[in-house]
Every structure is written in structure tokens, then in C-alpha cells.
Amino acid sequence: MRTERLRLRALNQEDSKTLYELIFSDKDVIKYTFGKDTISEQNIYEYVKQIGLKVLENNTTKEIIGLAGVLPCSYLQEDDYEFGFILAKKFWGLGYASEIGKAQIESIKNSLLKNRAIATVYHENFASIKCIEKLGLKYETTISTDRGERLVYLLNFK
Question: Where does the record locate the signal sequence feature (predicted)?
């Protein structure tokens, strides 16, 4: 997946150190994504690979800015796809979340041929809530997950 400024690529073992420094060691980032999970640098590759996320990087510089992905989910008892993004703190507020979110929604609609897209977020992650609402998603419900309570947002394409 590629946008004007960003691209998603497969994770490789060498990404672990950078991802640890940018995301997994930053409590401000982790509290909005993986909850209380603490992941060591040695376990990042397997953990991220198991979830199914990809590395999000700048098209021009190839600098890693975070993780993102489109993943199957059944939060609403249907065969849905959830999109999500995790940005390193130094990249917050630069429009990257909206940019990759828009591309992910288009992928769910046009490549996966689904009728709707889902995003989940912690209730205190106000910046992400604002972003997904700006992308057109509406609050649907609250669910309990192994990572705590999450708000479910939905965008119907019909």
C-alpha cells in the first residue's frame, strides 16, 4: 500500500530495534495501542508479525514512522476488516494517520470489496478518535478485549 508520502512494507527482523525505540519503549504510544503489554526488543518481530501489522515508512527517506495494517475482525459478529495505525510520537500531528487511514479505507472498499470498515480505539485516545471521525467513521459500540475496553467506529460504504 502506498500513498503520496507513505508506504506499507513487510516487517523484517532488522526493524525490531527501530520499532522498539520509536514505539514499544514509549509509554505515551503504548498506552494507546497495546495497553499494558510490555514487549521486549527481542520479541517485537514475532509479536508484530503475529498481529499482522506492517511497517509504515516515509516514501522518500525510507524512515520508519510506525506500524499499520488492515486486519480481519469480528467485533460486530460479521466478516469485517479493521484498519489501524500506530505512529511514533515525533510523527504525531503531521497528517500521516489521516493519509494512511484514507488509503486503508479505500483498500477495504475497493480491493477487499467489503461494505464497511471498522476502527477501534481507546476512549482516551482523543487524537485518534478525531482522526477516524474526520475519515467519516461513526461511533457504534464499546467492546471489551484482552487489551481493555475499546470504542468501535464504523464506516458504511452503501
Answer: none
